[in-house]
């Protein structure tokens, strides 16, 4: 039972998330040979102020 955790900047639509989880599920089934019903995907929306790369908050990026 693969469980896939994904962190994304907030702001994606439900339609985008729906398409994303469908594509990831299909890729997981094709790659790992699991059933679609066994694939769990957890999406966490993250504010840009709560994510940093290289010591700089994404909310500070220009």
Automatic annotation (TrEMBL):
<dbReference type="Pfam" id="PF01361">
    <property type="entry name" value="Tautomerase"/>
</dbReference>
<comment type="similarity">
    <text>Belongs to the 4-oxalocrotonate tautomerase family.</text>
</comment>
<dbReference type="GO" id="GO:0016853">
    <property type="term" value="F:isomerase activity"/>
</dbReference>
<dbReference type="InterPro" id="IPR014347">
    <property type="entry name" value="Tautomerase/MIF_sf"/>
</dbReference>
<protein>
    <recommendedName>
        <fullName>Tautomerase</fullName>
        <ecNumber>5.3.2.-</ecNumber>
    </recommendedName>
</protein>
<dbReference type="InterPro" id="IPR018191">
    <property type="entry name" value="4-OT"/>
</dbReference>
<feature type="active site" description="Proton acceptor; via imino nitrogen">
    <location>
        <position position="2"/>
    </location>
</feature>
<dbReference type="InterPro" id="IPR004370">
    <property type="entry name" value="4-OT-like_dom"/>
</dbReference>
<keyword id="KW-0413">Isomerase</keyword>
<feature type="domain" description="4-oxalocrotonate tautomerase-like">
    <location>
        <begin position="2"/>
        <end position="60"/>
    </location>
</feature>
